[in-house]
Design goal:
about 30% helix, globular
Length: about 525
Amino acid sequence: MIKKLLHIGRRFLHVLLSSLLGALVVIVALAVYELNNRPDLSVWHKTVLDQEFRADSGLKNFGEYLELEERLFKQLDQQVYQKIDETDKRAINRYVRGSLSDPGRWPTNWNRSFVLPVDEPKIGVLLLHGMSDSPYSLRSIGQLLHGHGAYVIGMRVPGHGQAPSGLLETTWEDMAAAVRLAMTELHEKAAGVPSYIVGYSNGGALAVQYTLDSLADESLKPVNGLILISPEIGISKFAALAKWQERLGHLLGLEKLAWNSLSPEYDPWKYGSFALNAGKQAYRITQEIQRQITAQAKAGTLSRVPPVLALQSVVDATVTAPALVNNFFDRLPAISLKQGNSQQIHHELVLFDINRYAEIEPLMKDNPSAWINPMLKNDNLKFMLTLMSNENHENEQVIASSRKPGSSAIDTCTTALSWPKGVYSLSHVALPIPPDDPVYGGDEAGPSPGIDLGDLALRGEKGVLQVPAADMLRLRYNPFHRYLEQRMLVFMDLERDSDSFCISPDSASQTGAIQQ
Protein backbone atom coordinates (compact mmCIF):
# COMPACT_ATOMS: atom_id res chain seq x y z
CA MET A 1 0.00 0.00 0.00
CA ILE A 2 2.80 2.44 0.94
CA LYS A 3 4.67 1.67 -2.29
CA LYS A 4 1.49 2.26 -4.24
CA LEU A 5 0.91 5.61 -2.52
CA LEU A 6 4.50 6.63 -3.17
CA HIS A 7 4.13 5.66 -6.81
CA ILE A 8 0.93 7.70 -7.10
CA GLY A 9 2.60 10.62 -5.35
CA ARG A 10 5.56 10.55 -7.72
CA ARG A 11 3.27 10.42 -10.74
CA PHE A 12 1.23 13.32 -9.37
CA LEU A 13 4.39 15.34 -8.76
CA HIS A 14 5.65 14.52 -12.25
CA VAL A 15 2.35 15.63 -13.80
CA LEU A 16 2.33 18.79 -11.66
CA LEU A 17 5.88 19.73 -12.63
CA SER A 18 5.19 18.98 -16.27
CA SER A 19 2.08 21.15 -16.14
CA LEU A 20 3.94 23.99 -14.47
CA LEU A 21 6.77 23.74 -16.99
CA GLY A 22 4.26 23.70 -19.84
CA ALA A 23 2.47 26.71 -18.40
CA LEU A 24 5.79 28.53 -18.04
CA VAL A 25 6.69 27.77 -21.66
CA VAL A 26 3.31 29.08 -22.80
CA ILE A 27 3.70 32.27 -20.72
CA VAL A 28 7.20 32.87 -22.08
CA ALA A 29 6.02 32.20 -25.63
CA LEU A 30 3.14 34.65 -25.25
CA ALA A 31 5.44 37.25 -23.71
CA VAL A 32 7.96 36.83 -26.55
CA TYR A 33 5.16 37.11 -29.11
CA GLU A 34 3.83 40.26 -27.48
CA LEU A 35 7.28 41.84 -27.20
CA ASN A 36 8.15 40.98 -30.78
CA ASN A 37 4.79 42.27 -32.01
CA ARG A 38 5.79 45.85 -31.21
CA PRO A 39 6.64 48.45 -33.92
CA ASP A 40 9.55 47.62 -36.23
CA LEU A 41 12.98 48.86 -35.27
CA SER A 42 14.17 52.01 -37.02
CA VAL A 43 17.65 53.13 -37.99
CA TRP A 44 18.10 54.89 -34.62
CA HIS A 45 17.45 51.57 -32.85
CA LYS A 46 19.82 49.47 -34.95
CA THR A 47 22.81 51.73 -35.61
CA VAL A 48 25.49 51.50 -32.91
CA LEU A 49 28.02 54.32 -33.36
CA ASP A 50 31.63 53.28 -32.78
CA GLN A 51 32.78 56.84 -31.99
CA GLU A 52 31.10 56.69 -28.57
CA PHE A 53 33.37 56.88 -25.53
CA ARG A 54 34.29 53.66 -23.72
CA ALA A 55 36.26 53.17 -20.53
CA ASP A 56 39.02 51.60 -22.63
CA SER A 57 39.07 54.38 -25.27
CA GLY A 58 42.46 55.50 -23.98
CA LEU A 59 41.59 59.19 -23.76
CA LYS A 60 43.91 61.29 -21.61
CA ASN A 61 41.72 64.29 -20.78
CA PHE A 62 38.30 65.90 -21.15
CA GLY A 63 39.44 67.85 -24.20
CA GLU A 64 39.95 64.57 -26.02
CA TYR A 65 36.51 63.49 -24.80
CA LEU A 66 34.98 66.55 -26.49
CA GLU A 67 36.95 65.84 -29.68
CA LEU A 68 35.62 62.28 -29.74
CA GLU A 69 32.13 63.64 -29.10
CA GLU A 70 32.51 65.87 -32.15
CA ARG A 71 33.31 62.82 -34.28
CA LEU A 72 30.39 60.97 -32.70
CA PHE A 73 27.87 63.59 -33.77
CA LYS A 74 29.26 63.70 -37.29
CA GLN A 75 28.81 59.93 -37.40
CA LEU A 76 25.26 60.35 -36.02
CA ASP A 77 24.46 62.67 -38.91
CA GLN A 78 25.93 60.32 -41.53
CA GLN A 79 24.57 57.01 -40.25
CA VAL A 80 21.23 58.05 -38.74
CA TYR A 81 19.97 61.45 -39.93
CA GLN A 82 20.98 60.83 -43.54
CA LYS A 83 19.56 57.31 -43.62
CA ILE A 84 16.05 57.95 -42.32
CA ASP A 85 13.42 55.84 -44.07
CA GLU A 86 10.78 57.77 -46.01
CA THR A 87 8.05 56.45 -43.73
CA ASP A 88 9.86 57.99 -40.74
CA LYS A 89 10.07 61.49 -42.19
CA ARG A 90 7.40 63.04 -39.99
CA ALA A 91 6.85 66.53 -38.60
CA ILE A 92 7.55 65.21 -35.09
CA ASN A 93 10.73 63.12 -35.18
CA ARG A 94 14.00 64.29 -33.65
CA TYR A 95 15.97 62.48 -36.38
CA VAL A 96 14.32 64.39 -39.22
CA ARG A 97 16.03 67.68 -40.07
CA GLY A 98 13.65 70.62 -39.75
CA SER A 99 10.98 68.72 -37.80
CA LEU A 100 9.47 70.24 -34.66
CA SER A 101 11.61 67.87 -32.59
CA ASP A 102 14.88 68.45 -34.45
CA PRO A 103 17.51 69.66 -31.91
CA GLY A 104 18.90 71.79 -34.73
CA ARG A 105 15.95 74.17 -34.34
CA TRP A 106 17.47 75.40 -31.08
CA PRO A 107 20.45 77.83 -31.03
CA THR A 108 22.40 75.28 -28.95
CA ASN A 109 22.29 71.50 -29.29
CA TRP A 110 21.88 70.60 -25.63
CA ASN A 111 22.35 66.92 -26.40
CA ARG A 112 26.07 67.65 -26.32
CA SER A 113 28.44 68.44 -23.46
CA PHE A 114 28.69 72.15 -22.64
CA VAL A 115 31.14 74.30 -20.69
CA LEU A 116 30.28 77.64 -19.05
CA PRO A 117 33.63 79.20 -18.07
CA VAL A 118 34.45 82.18 -15.85
CA ASP A 119 37.82 83.88 -15.40
CA GLU A 120 37.87 83.83 -11.61
CA PRO A 121 35.45 81.09 -10.49
CA LYS A 122 34.06 80.98 -6.98
CA ILE A 123 33.40 77.26 -7.31
CA GLY A 124 33.56 74.49 -9.90
CA VAL A 125 30.45 72.43 -10.74
CA LEU A 126 30.01 69.23 -12.74
CA LEU A 127 26.47 68.49 -13.94
CA LEU A 128 25.47 64.87 -14.58
CA HIS A 129 22.13 64.14 -16.22
CA GLY A 130 19.94 61.04 -16.00
CA MET A 131 19.53 57.80 -17.94
CA SER A 132 18.14 58.19 -21.50
CA ASP A 133 18.39 61.93 -20.83
CA SER A 134 20.72 64.70 -22.05
CA PRO A 135 22.57 67.73 -20.63
CA TYR A 136 19.44 69.78 -21.40
CA SER A 137 17.78 68.65 -18.18
CA LEU A 138 20.37 70.53 -16.08
CA ARG A 139 20.86 73.40 -18.52
CA SER A 140 18.94 76.01 -16.49
CA ILE A 141 20.67 74.98 -13.24
CA GLY A 142 24.05 75.30 -14.95
CA GLN A 143 23.19 78.76 -16.24
CA LEU A 144 21.99 79.82 -12.78
CA LEU A 145 25.20 78.66 -11.10
CA HIS A 146 27.34 80.20 -13.84
CA GLY A 147 25.59 83.52 -13.24
CA HIS A 148 26.70 83.29 -9.60
CA GLY A 149 30.35 82.76 -10.47
CA ALA A 150 30.62 78.99 -10.99
CA TYR A 151 32.78 77.33 -13.63
CA VAL A 152 30.32 74.77 -15.01
CA ILE A 153 30.81 71.58 -17.00
CA GLY A 154 27.61 69.94 -18.23
CA MET A 155 28.83 66.54 -19.39
CA ARG A 156 26.99 64.36 -21.88
CA VAL A 157 27.11 60.95 -20.24
CA PRO A 158 28.28 58.23 -22.69
CA GLY A 159 25.45 56.51 -24.57
CA HIS A 160 23.23 59.59 -24.44
CA GLY A 161 22.24 62.51 -26.64
CA GLN A 162 22.76 60.60 -29.90
CA ALA A 163 20.51 57.64 -30.80
CA PRO A 164 18.68 55.27 -28.39
CA SER A 165 20.95 52.50 -29.69
CA GLY A 166 23.73 54.22 -27.76
CA LEU A 167 22.44 52.52 -24.62
CA LEU A 168 22.51 49.00 -26.07
CA GLU A 169 26.16 48.51 -25.14
CA THR A 170 27.24 51.35 -22.82
CA THR A 171 28.08 50.27 -19.26
CA TRP A 172 28.09 52.22 -16.02
CA GLU A 173 31.86 51.75 -15.98
CA ASP A 174 32.04 53.73 -19.25
CA MET A 175 29.99 56.49 -17.65
CA ALA A 176 32.14 56.49 -14.50
CA ALA A 177 35.34 56.74 -16.58
CA ALA A 178 33.96 59.84 -18.32
CA VAL A 179 33.09 61.40 -14.94
CA ARG A 180 36.73 60.99 -13.87
CA LEU A 181 37.92 62.87 -16.97
CA ALA A 182 35.42 65.67 -16.35
CA MET A 183 36.35 66.01 -12.66
CA THR A 184 40.05 66.27 -13.52
CA GLU A 185 39.19 69.00 -16.03
CA LEU A 186 37.04 70.83 -13.48
CA HIS A 187 39.84 70.89 -10.91
CA GLU A 188 42.26 72.27 -13.49
CA LYS A 189 39.90 75.03 -14.69
CA ALA A 190 38.60 75.91 -11.21
CA ALA A 191 41.78 75.32 -9.21
CA GLY A 192 41.86 76.28 -5.55
CA VAL A 193 38.08 76.65 -5.13
CA PRO A 194 35.48 74.15 -3.87
CA SER A 195 34.14 71.64 -6.39
CA TYR A 196 30.63 70.22 -6.44
CA ILE A 197 28.74 67.60 -8.42
CA VAL A 198 25.06 68.07 -9.22
CA GLY A 199 23.65 64.69 -10.20
CA TYR A 200 20.14 64.06 -11.48
CA SER A 201 18.73 60.50 -11.44
CA ASN A 202 21.44 58.21 -12.88
CA GLY A 203 23.74 61.22 -12.68
CA GLY A 204 23.14 61.17 -8.93
CA ALA A 205 24.29 57.56 -8.79
CA LEU A 206 27.40 58.45 -10.80
CA ALA A 207 28.09 61.37 -8.44
CA VAL A 208 27.82 59.15 -5.35
CA GLN A 209 29.90 56.39 -6.92
CA TYR A 210 32.69 58.81 -7.87
CA THR A 211 32.68 60.36 -4.38
CA LEU A 212 32.93 56.97 -2.68
CA ASP A 213 35.74 56.01 -5.05
CA SER A 214 37.61 59.21 -4.20
CA LEU A 215 37.64 58.29 -0.50
CA ALA A 216 39.75 55.22 -1.26
CA ASP A 217 41.71 56.50 -4.26
CA GLU A 218 43.84 59.58 -3.57
CA SER A 219 44.51 60.04 -7.29
CA LEU A 220 40.89 61.11 -7.77
CA LYS A 221 40.04 64.77 -7.30
CA PRO A 222 38.03 65.40 -4.11
CA VAL A 223 34.45 66.66 -3.97
CA ASN A 224 33.36 69.38 -1.54
CA GLY A 225 29.65 68.71 -1.78
CA LEU A 226 26.98 66.72 -3.61
CA ILE A 227 23.57 67.90 -4.76
CA LEU A 228 21.40 64.96 -5.75
CA ILE A 229 18.11 65.47 -7.59
CA SER A 230 15.83 62.42 -7.72
CA PRO A 231 18.96 60.28 -7.33
CA GLU A 232 19.12 56.69 -8.52
CA ILE A 233 20.00 54.95 -5.25
CA GLY A 234 17.41 52.20 -5.40
CA ILE A 235 15.40 50.84 -8.33
CA SER A 236 13.10 47.88 -8.79
CA LYS A 237 14.76 44.46 -8.60
CA PHE A 238 12.88 43.60 -11.78
CA ALA A 239 15.54 45.63 -13.59
CA ALA A 240 17.96 42.82 -12.77
CA LEU A 241 15.78 40.44 -14.82
CA ALA A 242 16.45 42.48 -17.95
CA LYS A 243 19.47 40.34 -18.77
CA TRP A 244 17.25 37.26 -19.21
CA GLN A 245 15.05 39.01 -21.75
CA GLU A 246 18.21 40.17 -23.53
CA ARG A 247 19.65 36.63 -23.56
CA LEU A 248 16.39 35.21 -24.84
CA GLY A 249 16.39 37.79 -27.63
CA HIS A 250 19.95 36.85 -28.62
CA LEU A 251 19.09 33.14 -28.49
CA LEU A 252 16.03 33.55 -30.72
CA GLY A 253 17.57 36.22 -32.95
CA LEU A 254 14.85 38.73 -32.03
CA GLU A 255 16.33 42.24 -31.87
CA LYS A 256 13.21 43.79 -30.37
CA LEU A 257 13.69 41.86 -27.14
CA ALA A 258 16.69 44.09 -26.37
CA TRP A 259 14.23 46.92 -25.74
CA ASN A 260 12.05 47.61 -22.74
CA SER A 261 10.00 50.11 -24.73
CA LEU A 262 9.80 51.21 -28.36
CA SER A 263 8.21 54.65 -28.56
CA PRO A 264 8.24 57.49 -31.07
CA GLU A 265 11.22 59.85 -30.81
CA TYR A 266 9.25 63.06 -30.37
CA ASP A 267 11.39 64.58 -27.59
CA PRO A 268 14.48 66.50 -28.81
CA TRP A 269 16.36 65.99 -25.52
CA LYS A 270 15.32 62.56 -24.25
CA TYR A 271 15.06 59.12 -25.83
CA GLY A 272 11.54 57.79 -26.33
CA SER A 273 12.74 54.17 -26.59
CA PHE A 274 14.50 52.53 -23.66
CA ALA A 275 17.06 49.75 -24.05
CA LEU A 276 16.99 46.93 -21.50
CA ASN A 277 20.72 47.39 -21.01
CA ALA A 278 20.06 50.85 -19.59
CA GLY A 279 17.93 49.39 -16.81
CA LYS A 280 20.51 46.70 -16.21
CA GLN A 281 23.29 49.27 -15.84
CA ALA A 282 21.15 51.32 -13.48
CA TYR A 283 20.68 48.26 -11.30
CA ARG A 284 24.39 47.40 -11.45
CA ILE A 285 25.54 50.84 -10.31
CA THR A 286 23.07 50.90 -7.40
CA GLN A 287 24.48 47.54 -6.30
CA GLU A 288 28.03 48.88 -6.65
CA ILE A 289 27.15 51.87 -4.47
CA GLN A 290 25.86 49.58 -1.71
CA ARG A 291 29.03 47.49 -1.94
CA GLN A 292 31.19 50.59 -1.68
CA ILE A 293 29.24 52.00 1.28
CA THR A 294 29.72 48.71 3.12
CA ALA A 295 33.44 48.70 2.33
CA GLN A 296 33.88 52.34 3.36
CA ALA A 297 31.96 51.74 6.59
CA LYS A 298 34.36 48.90 7.47
CA ALA A 299 37.33 51.11 6.59
CA GLY A 300 35.98 53.92 8.77
CA THR A 301 36.08 56.46 5.96
CA LEU A 302 32.35 57.20 5.47
CA SER A 303 32.68 60.20 7.79
CA ARG A 304 34.71 61.81 5.00
CA VAL A 305 31.73 61.87 2.63
CA PRO A 306 31.20 65.59 1.90
CA PRO A 307 27.89 67.32 2.71
CA VAL A 308 24.99 65.99 0.68
CA LEU A 309 21.81 67.86 -0.24
CA ALA A 310 19.21 65.59 -1.88
CA LEU A 311 15.85 66.67 -3.28
CA GLN A 312 13.25 64.01 -3.98
CA SER A 313 9.53 63.64 -4.66
CA VAL A 314 7.85 61.26 -2.20
CA VAL A 315 6.26 59.54 -5.20
CA ASP A 316 8.58 58.55 -8.02
CA ALA A 317 7.87 56.00 -10.75
CA THR A 318 11.53 55.77 -11.81
CA VAL A 319 13.55 55.42 -8.61
CA THR A 320 12.58 54.01 -5.21
CA ALA A 321 12.21 57.04 -2.94
CA PRO A 322 12.39 55.14 0.42
CA ALA A 323 15.67 53.56 -0.73
CA LEU A 324 17.26 57.00 -0.71
CA VAL A 325 16.75 56.97 3.06
CA ASN A 326 17.31 53.29 3.83
CA ASN A 327 20.23 52.67 1.46
CA PHE A 328 22.01 56.01 1.70
CA PHE A 329 21.14 58.62 4.32
CA ASP A 330 20.64 56.11 7.13
CA ARG A 331 24.04 54.61 6.32
CA LEU A 332 25.98 57.88 6.43
CA PRO A 333 27.49 59.14 9.71
CA ALA A 334 26.11 62.48 10.89
CA ILE A 335 28.15 65.59 10.08
CA SER A 336 27.94 69.19 11.29
CA LEU A 337 30.09 71.70 9.42
CA LYS A 338 30.30 75.48 9.35
CA GLN A 339 29.72 77.06 5.94
CA GLY A 340 31.54 80.22 4.93
CA ASN A 341 28.46 82.30 5.75
CA SER A 342 28.33 80.72 9.25
CA GLN A 343 25.45 78.47 8.25
CA GLN A 344 25.46 75.03 9.82
CA ILE A 345 25.68 72.33 7.16
CA HIS A 346 24.35 68.78 7.62
CA HIS A 347 23.53 66.03 5.22
CA GLU A 348 19.99 66.99 4.26
CA LEU A 349 17.07 65.36 2.50
CA VAL A 350 14.30 67.58 1.11
CA LEU A 351 11.10 65.70 0.31
CA PHE A 352 8.33 67.16 -1.86
CA ASP A 353 5.06 65.71 -0.59
CA ILE A 354 1.93 64.97 -2.61
CA ASN A 355 -0.68 67.72 -2.78
CA ARG A 356 -2.74 66.90 0.31
CA TYR A 357 -5.30 69.51 -0.68
CA ALA A 358 -6.17 67.49 -3.75
CA GLU A 359 -7.44 64.69 -1.46
CA ILE A 360 -6.20 61.99 -3.79
CA GLU A 361 -5.35 59.48 -1.04
CA PRO A 362 -8.41 57.27 -1.76
CA LEU A 363 -7.31 57.01 -5.41
CA MET A 364 -3.67 56.14 -4.70
CA LYS A 365 -2.23 52.64 -4.99
CA ASP A 366 0.11 53.33 -2.06
CA ASN A 367 0.08 56.30 0.28
CA PRO A 368 3.62 57.68 0.82
CA SER A 369 2.69 58.49 4.42
CA ALA A 370 3.31 54.81 5.18
CA TRP A 371 7.07 55.35 4.89
CA ILE A 372 7.26 59.09 5.63
CA ASN A 373 5.50 59.12 9.01
CA PRO A 374 7.83 56.65 10.81
CA MET A 375 10.80 58.69 9.63
CA LEU A 376 9.22 61.94 10.82
CA LYS A 377 8.72 60.46 14.27
CA ASN A 378 12.34 59.33 14.53
CA ASP A 379 14.18 61.51 17.08
CA ASN A 380 17.55 60.02 16.14
CA LEU A 381 17.91 60.99 12.49
CA LYS A 382 21.53 61.43 11.44
CA PHE A 383 20.58 63.91 8.74
CA MET A 384 18.40 66.97 8.45
CA LEU A 385 14.94 66.26 7.06
CA THR A 386 12.75 68.86 5.37
CA LEU A 387 9.25 68.12 4.11
CA MET A 388 7.53 70.48 1.69
CA SER A 389 3.81 69.92 2.17
CA ASN A 390 0.42 71.62 2.40
CA GLU A 391 -0.22 73.86 5.38
CA ASN A 392 -3.32 71.71 5.90
CA HIS A 393 -5.84 69.69 3.88
CA GLU A 394 -7.87 72.83 3.13
CA ASN A 395 -4.98 74.92 1.85
CA GLU A 396 -2.72 74.75 -1.23
CA GLN A 397 -0.10 76.91 0.52
CA VAL A 398 3.17 75.04 1.06
CA ILE A 399 5.07 75.01 4.34
CA ALA A 400 8.59 73.75 4.99
CA SER A 401 8.88 71.53 8.07
CA SER A 402 12.38 70.57 9.23
CA ARG A 403 13.94 68.33 11.83
CA LYS A 404 17.65 68.65 12.56
CA PRO A 405 19.84 65.59 13.24
CA GLY A 406 19.15 64.13 16.67
CA SER A 407 16.46 66.71 17.46
CA SER A 408 12.93 66.02 18.64
CA ALA A 409 11.77 69.52 17.62
CA ILE A 410 10.17 70.19 14.27
CA ASP A 411 10.51 73.72 12.90
CA THR A 412 7.89 74.88 10.44
CA CYS A 413 7.55 78.06 8.43
CA THR A 414 5.35 79.33 5.65
CA THR A 415 6.77 79.68 2.15
CA ALA A 416 5.70 81.85 -0.75
CA LEU A 417 4.87 78.66 -2.69
CA SER A 418 1.59 76.94 -3.44
CA TRP A 419 0.42 73.98 -5.49
CA PRO A 420 -0.79 74.76 -9.03
CA LYS A 421 -4.36 73.85 -9.85
CA GLY A 422 -4.79 70.26 -11.02
CA VAL A 423 -1.34 69.06 -9.90
CA TYR A 424 -1.36 66.26 -7.33
CA SER A 425 2.38 65.52 -7.09
CA LEU A 426 5.79 66.14 -8.59
CA SER A 427 7.35 63.49 -10.83
CA HIS A 428 10.80 62.06 -11.38
CA VAL A 429 11.35 64.09 -14.54
CA ALA A 430 9.94 67.33 -13.10
CA LEU A 431 12.37 68.28 -10.34
CA PRO A 432 15.25 69.84 -12.36
CA ILE A 433 13.01 71.69 -14.84
CA PRO A 434 11.80 75.28 -14.16
CA PRO A 435 8.20 76.31 -14.94
CA ASP A 436 9.37 78.72 -17.65
CA ASP A 437 11.30 76.07 -19.60
CA PRO A 438 10.36 76.53 -23.29
CA VAL A 439 10.09 72.78 -23.95
CA TYR A 440 8.80 71.28 -20.69
CA GLY A 441 7.41 74.29 -18.78
CA GLY A 442 3.81 75.09 -17.86
CA ASP A 443 1.84 78.33 -18.13
CA GLU A 444 5.02 80.37 -17.58
CA ALA A 445 6.90 78.65 -20.44
CA GLY A 446 8.72 80.89 -22.87
CA PRO A 447 8.40 80.50 -26.64
CA SER A 448 9.89 77.32 -28.07
CA PRO A 449 11.52 77.20 -31.52
CA GLY A 450 10.18 73.67 -31.83
CA ILE A 451 7.92 71.28 -29.97
CA ASP A 452 6.32 72.23 -26.64
CA LEU A 453 5.79 69.24 -24.34
CA GLY A 454 5.01 70.97 -21.05
CA ASP A 455 1.21 70.81 -21.21
CA LEU A 456 0.80 67.94 -23.64
CA ALA A 457 -2.59 66.45 -22.76
CA LEU A 458 -4.33 65.24 -25.92
CA ARG A 459 -7.87 63.94 -25.51
CA GLY A 460 -9.67 61.26 -27.51
CA GLU A 461 -10.21 57.51 -27.53
CA LYS A 462 -7.82 55.27 -25.57
CA GLY A 463 -5.44 52.92 -27.38
CA VAL A 464 -5.13 55.11 -30.46
CA LEU A 465 -1.81 56.87 -29.81
CA GLN A 466 1.58 55.16 -29.62
CA VAL A 467 2.48 57.37 -26.64
CA PRO A 468 0.72 56.17 -23.46
CA ALA A 469 -1.65 58.67 -21.85
CA ALA A 470 0.30 58.34 -18.60
CA ASP A 471 3.39 59.71 -20.33
CA MET A 472 1.53 62.71 -21.69
CA LEU A 473 -0.03 63.54 -18.32
CA ARG A 474 3.24 63.22 -16.39
CA LEU A 475 4.30 66.53 -14.86
CA ARG A 476 7.40 67.76 -16.69
CA TYR A 477 8.31 70.87 -14.69
CA ASN A 478 8.80 71.71 -11.04
CA PRO A 479 6.44 74.42 -9.72
CA PHE A 480 8.79 74.73 -6.71
CA HIS A 481 11.94 75.11 -8.78
CA ARG A 482 12.75 78.52 -7.25
CA TYR A 483 13.01 76.81 -3.87
CA LEU A 484 15.34 74.16 -5.33
CA GLU A 485 17.51 76.90 -6.84
CA GLN A 486 17.71 78.83 -3.58
CA ARG A 487 18.64 75.75 -1.59
CA MET A 488 21.42 74.95 -4.04
CA LEU A 489 22.86 78.48 -3.94
CA VAL A 490 22.92 78.53 -0.14
CA PHE A 491 24.38 75.01 0.02
CA MET A 492 27.21 76.06 -2.31
CA ASP A 493 27.76 79.28 -0.33
CA LEU A 494 26.92 81.40 -3.38
CA GLU A 495 24.10 83.20 -1.58
CA ARG A 496 23.09 83.81 2.01
CA ASP A 497 20.00 82.40 3.69
CA SER A 498 16.70 83.76 2.45
CA ASP A 499 13.59 83.83 4.62
CA SER A 500 11.36 83.99 1.55
CA PHE A 501 11.85 80.27 0.97
CA CYS A 502 12.55 79.19 4.54
CA ILE A 503 16.10 78.24 3.68
CA SER A 504 17.02 78.33 7.35
CA PRO A 505 14.52 76.69 9.73
CA ASP A 506 15.85 79.02 12.44
CA SER A 507 14.64 82.12 10.63
CA ALA A 508 11.03 83.22 11.07
CA SER A 509 10.08 79.71 12.15
CA GLN A 510 7.90 78.20 14.78
CA THR A 511 7.83 74.76 16.34
CA GLY A 512 4.87 72.65 15.37
CA ALA A 513 3.67 69.36 13.90
CA ILE A 514 4.30 68.30 10.35
CA GLN A 515 1.02 68.19 8.51
CA GLN A 516 0.09 64.78 7.17
